[in-house]
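Long-time lurker. I teach an intro course on protein structure, and each term I like to show students one example going from raw sequence to a predicted 3D structure in token notation. This year I'd like something fresh instead of my usual example. Would anyone be willing to generate the tokens for the chain below so I can use it in lecture? Attribution to the forum is fine with me.
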Amino acid sequence: MSLTSKQRAYLNSLAQTMKPIIQIGKNGLNDHIKTSVRNALDARELIKINLLQNTDEDINGVAEILEEEIGAQTVRKIGRVLILFKTSSKKENRKLSAKVKEI
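-- Reply from a regular --
Happy to contribute to a lecture. Here you go:
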């Protein structure tokens, strides 16, 4: 499922008040961080990731890798902040994705 512009706008408005829960630093995008992203998306469906100043990673590259390997969808990239969305694999955590489908 690809996100429409209205769905992206809705998710972006929800993410405005969120704080980044995952930070990518000097170790880059390693398997540990990918596992953390996968677990966070299963629990919350919408997360913010912050790329710290000391990382060599590029935000576009990080977004591309996470989209391919995890199946997440990029809502928005702002500077060094990445907002990702993915429907949870657990039914009890699918509160947000139901609202997104209605839009």
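Some talking points for your students: The first strand starts at residue 22 and ends at 24. The radius of gyration is 13 Å.
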